[in-house]
Backbone:
């Protein structure tokens, strides 16, 4: 592991344990067993370090989603695959997931405009699939981009229940995830009425 990777790992741990405001370059240096000066060789400041953590996590999530996408599958199957991949990523990488979505906005440094494109890629990917489903008269949606954000918000809520350990103990995580995913995706599908 390179020094930069080690600094990011330690920072991730401290960020989630103590929050951004209590995370300092000195604490990171102490935990990584390096000098604070050596951290500045890789990151300008604490804000730069947090943005690097966010970018790395978004890039990893985007890769997982793109790898799960079968271009020849139907839009419904594509949404199901992406939902499974998203949930899998969140449950397998809870620290990275929390950095993307659960660091409080007031703790975030201003995110550079040019970097927003990386975040938008996920929503644009979803919106493209939803648009194809709409064009094929599979999905009942007005605005595919709004629907993409709605889909993300619903799946994010489901994941947050699991990661936050808020699920009723009488319900298994697997059953909850399967049924929740099914309900969310069925909400987009045009329901055929029997003739």
Residues:
């Amino acid at each position: 592991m390179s020094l930069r990777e080690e600094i990011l790992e330690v920072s991730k741990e401290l960020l989630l344990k103590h929050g951004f405001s209590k995370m300092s370059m000195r604490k990171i240096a102490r935990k990584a067993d390096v000098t604070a000066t050596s951290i500045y060789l890789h990151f300008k400041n604490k804000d730069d370090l947090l943005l690097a953590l966010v970018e790395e996590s978004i890039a990893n999530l985007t890769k997982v989603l793109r790898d799960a996408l079968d271009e020849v599958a139907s839009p419904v199957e594509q949404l199901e695959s992406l939902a499974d991949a998203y949930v899998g990523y969140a449950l397998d990488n809870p620290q990275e997931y929390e950095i993307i979505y659960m660091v409080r906005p007031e703790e975030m440094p201003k995110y550079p405009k040019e970097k927003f494109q990386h975040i938008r890629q996920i929503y644009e990917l979803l919106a493209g699939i939803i648009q194809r489903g709409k064009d094929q008269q599979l999905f009942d949606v007005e605005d595919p981009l709004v629907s993409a954000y709605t889909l993300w918000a619903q799946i994010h809520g489901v994941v947050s229940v699991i990661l936050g350990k808020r699920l009723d103990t009488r319900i298994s995580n697997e059953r909850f995830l399967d049924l929740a995913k099914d309900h969310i995706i069925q909400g987009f599908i045009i329901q055929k009425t029997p003739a």
User: Anything to note?
Assistant: The chain has a mean pLDDT of 88.
